[in-house]
């Protein structure tokens, strides 16, 4: 059991737990999924679970012109595959809380079991991902997103909000790279975020 849970949750992640990924000209800090799961096990004594996982994948038309577009010239539209995913992360842990006020002497704090239900969601463009495990990837990202609500120990405020949204290229395309290079860059990002997903069910 972790003593002083509230203080532990407010701690910054250890430097060894943080990985930096390059996103265009920016660097974004992440905590890999395997470490998030280890931290959840430590906090809850393995008493955590997920439920209500929802996963939607669809293709939509795009009309984003190329980077060297000529003003006023029309360009053919393309398609991209999008993914929306969400789940609920249920965590149960024990922590010390102020004891009820009673006459006489007694403990000032008592141990209490707390259960929290945290919602995690992710939306991203999977068109460039050479990944056959998109559903598992989405679930892992949702777990990390939900866990961050627990506190800084799980990556809350690790990056500016806009930078966090850019992690998978949602906001900022990888400009100036050929398709194969873009696939490689995003594939490396997913590996760092979620680890090897081939063995996950």
Description:
The chain has one domain (5-61, 80-194): Enolase-like, domain 1 (2-Layer Sandwich). The chain contains 5 helices and 5 strands; from the N terminus they run αββαβββααα. A 3-stranded antiparallel beta sheet has the order 3-4-5. A hairpin with a 2-residue loop joins strand 1 (19-23) and strand 2 (26-30). The chain is α+β, with helices and mostly antiparallel strands. The model is unreliable at 165-179 and 196-201 (pLDDT under 50). The chain is 26% helix and 31% strand. The radius of gyration is 21 Å and the shape is elongated.
List keywords for this structure.
three-stranded antiparallel sheet; Enolase-like, domain 1; alpha+beta; 5 helices; two-stranded antiparallel sheet; elongated; 26% helix; disordered C terminus; 201 residues
Would you summarize the structure shown here?
With 201 residues, this protein is of the alpha+beta class. 26% of the residues lie in helices and 31% in strands. It is built from 5 helices and 5 strands, in the order αββαβββααα.
| Count of discrete alpha- or pi-helical segments spanning 4 or more residues | 5
H/E topology pattern: HEEHEEEHHH
- CATH level-two architecture: 2-Layer Sandwich
- Find the structural class using helix and strand composition: alpha+beta
Q: What's the gyration radius in Å?
A: 21 Å
Q: What's the total number of strands?
A: 5
Supply the number of structural domains.
1
**What value does the average pLDDT take?**
76
Largest sheet: 3 strands, antiparallel
């Amino acid at each position: 059991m972790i003593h002083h849970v509230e203080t532990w949750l407010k701690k910054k992640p250890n430097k060894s737990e943080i990985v930096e990924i390059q996103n265009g000209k920016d660097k974004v800090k992440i905590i890999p999924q395997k470490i998030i799961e280890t931290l959840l096990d430590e906090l809850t004594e393995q008493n955590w679970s997920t439920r209500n996982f929802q996963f939607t994948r669809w293709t939509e038309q795009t009309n984003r012109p190329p980077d060297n577009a000529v003003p006023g010239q029309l360009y053919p539209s393309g398609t991209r595959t999008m993914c929306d995913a969400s789940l609920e992360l249920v965590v149960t842990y024990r922590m010390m809380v102020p004891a009820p006020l009673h006459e006489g002497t007694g403990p000032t704090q008592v141990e209490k079991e707390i259960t929290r239900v945290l919602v995690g969601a992710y939306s991203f463009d999977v068109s460039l991902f050479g990944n056959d495990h998109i559903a598992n990837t989405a679930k892992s990202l949702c777990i990390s997103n939900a866990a961050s609500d627990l506190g800084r120990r799980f990556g809350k405020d690790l990056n500016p909000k806009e930078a966090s949204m850019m992690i998978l290229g949602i906001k900022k395309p990888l400009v100036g790279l050929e398709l194969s290079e873009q696939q490689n860059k995003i594939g490396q990002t997913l590996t760092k975020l979620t680890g090897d997903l081939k063995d996950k069910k």
